[in-house]
Structure formats: C-alpha cells, structure tokens
Design brief:
There is one protein chain. This protein is mainly alpha-helical. It has one domain: Hypothetical protein af1432 (Orthogonal Bundle). Helix content is 64%, strand content 0%. The chain contains 9 helices and no strands. The protein has helices at residues 5-18, 31-38, 43-51, 54-57, 62-67, 72-81, 89-96, 100-113, 124-142. Helix 3 (43-51) crosses helix 8. It is globular, with a radius of gyration of 15 Å.
C-alpha cells in the first residue's frame, strides 16, 4: 500500500463508507477495495481503488470527494468507473478504458470479482456474472 496524505484519507473514507456492507461472499465489503489498493502502483490509482465504489454504493457524491481535497485526476477516473445503470455494461467498460488509472483499477476489480474461491456457493447467477466479467477483462486487455 502506498501511504500518502490522500491515500490515508481515502482509506479512512473507504472504511467509513463501507463499514456496514457485506459482499457476495459474506465478507466485510471493505476488504475488496483494500485488496485492489494493494495492487496499485501510485498515489492516484491507490486512491481510486479505495474509492471506486463509494459514489455508486453510498450516499457520497463526486462533489463530496472534491470538497475533501481528492485530486481531480482521481475524481475523473472515479467518474468513469461509476457505472450508470442506463449504460450497457460493455459500453461502460469500453469508455473507461481510455483512462489508464480507471483501466488498471477496473482490471483489478474484475479479477477479484471473478475469483470463485471468494464465494461459499457458486450458483448460475455467479457463473453468468463471471462470464460477463471475463469478457470485460478480455476487452480491457485488448485495448493497451
């Protein structure tokens, strides 16, 4: 993990935002963004990994993040990573691929979310979700 003023602030916010959430495996959700952040190689991508689901899954807004002093470069990547339900999934993935930080975080996110060892039970829904994620990984890896 990279520890800077911004990453420490993002760690605290990530924990606060997700502290009562549980992921599909029954584990505390906050472990997921922490896992992604551990794979990042610079301050901005670490901040983005930690905050990648904050706007999508909590009451925080991009304006909140800006007012907290997070870098504009991180906010731009987070906007691309926040999936609008009105946008087809693969279109969303293709659009975010233009930003190297968003692309790196999304690849880590997809790989972690595709890991069946995290799940207690692998049902048809999990298989379909993994199939979609593997197609997204293939798309992102093809665009370099």
């Amino acid at each position: 993990m990279i520890y800077t003023e911004h990453t420490k602030k993002a760690l605290k916010l990530c924990f606060e935002a997700h502290k009562n959430q549980i992921d599909k495996s029954g584990m505390p959700y906050v472990f997921h963004p922490f896992h992604l952040a551990e794979q990042m190689t610079d301050e901005v991508s670490t901040v983005v990994a930690l905050l990648h689901d904050v706007v999508e899954d909590t009451d925080y807004t991009f304006d909140d993040l800006l007012s907290m002093g997070f870098p504009t470069q991180a906010i731009d990547a987070l906007k691309l990573l926040t999936h609008d339900d009105g946008t087809p999934y693969m279109e969303y993935v293709e659009r975010l691929s233009s930003n190297p930080t968003a692309r790196a975080v999304k690849l880590a996110d997809l790989r972690h979310n595709s890991d069946f060892s995290r799940l207690e039970t692998v049902d048809e829904r999990a298989r379909k979700r993994r199939e979609k994620y593997l197609k997204a990984i293939e798309l992102l890896e093809a665009i370099k």
